[in-house]
Design goal:
Elements lengths: L5 E6 L5 H13 L3 E6 L9 H8 L10 H6 L2 H6 L3 E7 L1 H9 L5 H8 L4 E5 L3 H5 L1 H12 L3 E2 L3 E4 L5 E5 L3 H12 L8 E6 L4 E2 L5 E2 L6 H12 L3 E6 L11 E4 L3 H11 L4 E4 L6 E3 L19 E3 L3 H6 L8 E8 L3 H12 L3 E6 L11 E2 L1 E5 L2 E4 L3 E2 H16 L1
Parallel strand pairs: 1-2, 1-3, 3-4, 4-5, 8-11, 8-13, 11-12, 13-16, 16-17
Antiparallel strand pairs: 6-7, 9-10, 14-15, 17-19, 18-21, 19-20
Helix pairs in contact: 1-2, 1-9, 5-8, 10-14
Bound molecules: cytidine-5'-monophosphate.
Length: about 400
Amino acid sequence: MLTGKRILLIIGGGISAYKSLDLIRKLRERDAAVIPVLTGAATEFVTPLSVAALSSSKVYGELFDLTDEAEMGHIQLSRSADLVVVAPATADLMAKMVHGFANDLASTLLLATDTPVLVAPAMNVRMWEHAATQRNIATLADDGVAFVGPNEGDMACGEFGPGRMAEPLEIVAAVEAELLDGPLKGKRVLITSGPTHEPIDPVRFIANRSSGAQGTAIANALSALGADVVFVTGPADVAPPSGVEVIAVQTAQQMLEAVQTALPADVAIFAAAVADWSVEGASDRKLKKTKDGLPTLTFAENPDILAHVSQLKTGRPELVVGFAAETNDVEANATAKLKRKGCDWIVANDVSPETGIMGGSENDVAIISQAGVDEWPRMSKDMVSRKLAQRVAEAIA
Ligand code: C5P
């Protein structure tokens, strides 16, 4: 619950402003006070009357409003909340924030506030991907602004891609993460993520198709619940999470060493797609074509990091979670893996090419533990991560 929390909600002028009406309801259901501010453009998309009715609050809109200034000046309004939420945050509004413009009430409040700011961007995919917007996002993040979304999907303008405003419940979760001590506060969680690269010679390596998306999403979800996250990552495609300790490695051996250095931890989640084999006697010079035929690679077995940590006699984390990426007999293989490795849970998924899971944005998982099999419906990797983080919190609370 958000009882006693005051949220200054700035609604920008975009089609997703309609979702902000639902956001107000969801915040009110959690007992937060919502003080709404509409930009001029926002009033073209939602009416001040609906916003007032749902928030049970006065709606602010004009910078030079004599009544407002008499009752509560805009400086005071900017500081009266525990959190400022901008949803939807248009490209224009974020550009104003970056440059410190203050030519309407919303931008003035954002410049004058001394409370944390959470932004939910929403715009056309090309506008989102434009170098100017990406520069602005990076600057705002550097300034300490927190972000939720945007999500990828069909857009009101008929295009597809990132730019959809985060769903109201996702924004509520981000608000809670900003305002509440999460259930994992004080817990240290170690996560491995991404592929490993096993060198053949200085320029060639053996790798796999893991993007690191699932591990990164899990790190974000756990950190949103207040955990101190140590993120050990191989060379992934996706950027590592912000606000967590990141240790970058290349090989399985380096990953094991990084994990050993990062322990002890309360929870360890092994989402990395660790190569099973390294190339024995990898050459320190580039292999050349010769007339004597093709080179022969001999493999050596890599350390099994999950099994190693699961079977530690001292200093074993209270909860150890492994992943099973299978292409057939998923449940049976994952159950056997749970026993073989000695971990507490296996998150099992089917990575057959036709599922589009490896490298994709969705996942279809079952959680296998001593208690049995819990099958989850197909959902975004972000949603899987949030559910998993919640389950971790319940298990070790
Ligand atoms: O044995 P398999 O590779 O299918 O097991 C997958 C699980 O084990 C994943 O959680 C993965 O991160 C972990 N693993 C590991 N070290 C290895 C191989 C797998 O930690 N060398």
